[in-house]
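Quiz preparation item.
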C-alpha cells in the first residue's frame, strides 16, 4: 500500500484461512503499541451464560516479556471498541 502509515494503538486482524484445529486462532494480525509490534490472535468464544465474546491474545514481536506486558492491556481495550459480533 503506497503511503500507508501505521499508527500507535492501531492494528488489523484477518480471518485465519489456514485454521485446521479448534485451538488455532479465528483471526490473526498485528498491532502497534507504544512503538512496539505485537502479534494478535483472536478466538471466538461463548461464556458460561451463553454470551459470545472475543478472546484477544497479544504476543510481542521480539521484546522481553516485561516490555510486552507494558501497554498490552490498554491496547486490547481500545483495539476492539468498534468490533461488532
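Solution:
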Amino acid at each position: 500500500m503506497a503511503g500507508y502509515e501505521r499508527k500507535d494503538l492501531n492494528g488489523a486482524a484477518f480471518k485465519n484461512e489456514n485454521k485446521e484445529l479448534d485451538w488455532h486462532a479465528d483471526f490473526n494480525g498485528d498491532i502497534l503499541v507504544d512503538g512496539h509490534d505485537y502479534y494478535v490472535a483472536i478466538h471466538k468464544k461463548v461464556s458460561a451464560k451463553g454470551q459470545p465474546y472475543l478472546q484477544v491474545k497479544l504476543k510481542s514481536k521480539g521484546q522481553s516479556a516485561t516490555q510486552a506486558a507494558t501497554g498490552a492491556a490498554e491496547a486490547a481495550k481500545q483495539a476492539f471498541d468498534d468490533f461488532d459480533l
